[in-house]
TrEMBL record:
The chain crosses the membrane at residues 6-27, 47-69, 89-112. Residues 120-139 are annotated as: Disordered. It is found in: Cell junction, Tight junction; Cell membrane. GO terms for molecular function: structural molecule activity. Pfam families: PMP22_Claudin (PF00822). The gene is Cldn1. GO terms for cellular component: bicellular tight junction; plasma membrane. It is a multi-pass membrane protein. Keywords: Cell junction, Cell membrane, Membrane, Tight junction, Transmembrane, Transmembrane helix. InterPro entries: Claudin, Claudin1, PMP22/EMP/MP20/Claudin. Belongs to the claudin family. Coiled coil: none annotated. This is CLD1 protein.
Amino acid sequence: LLGSLQATRALMVAAILLGLVAIFVAVTGMKCMKCMEEDQVKKMRMAVFGGVIFIIAGMAALVATSWYGNRVARAFYDPSTPVNTRFEFGSALFIGWAAASLALLGGAFLCCSCPQRETSYPPTRGYPKNAPSTGKDYV
């Protein structure tokens, strides 16, 4: 096989494995799970870490699918390629692009759920309420 075809296959296998790891990491960071329940900040960080892994998996799938799609398009428009051996974009390419887009979108949503840092500002105090004036305060 060509080196580019082997590389796209390796990228897709890496994307699938990273996606599985991201699922397990993100599931432990969900609010509805009981593990790591005592520390909510660490739990949210696990969800964000799962989102980062999802983004990496989505990028690997996007690169592999686009690389193979570019190869198909170049071979299709190459005049030296015989007509009976030309490939066209198939449903697998479109599914790969859709899967990469969804993995990137899901990873971005998980990364947006990062915990908010607590501020070190003192708590706000209300203004003291004045007693009603009797009118004798004026000179």
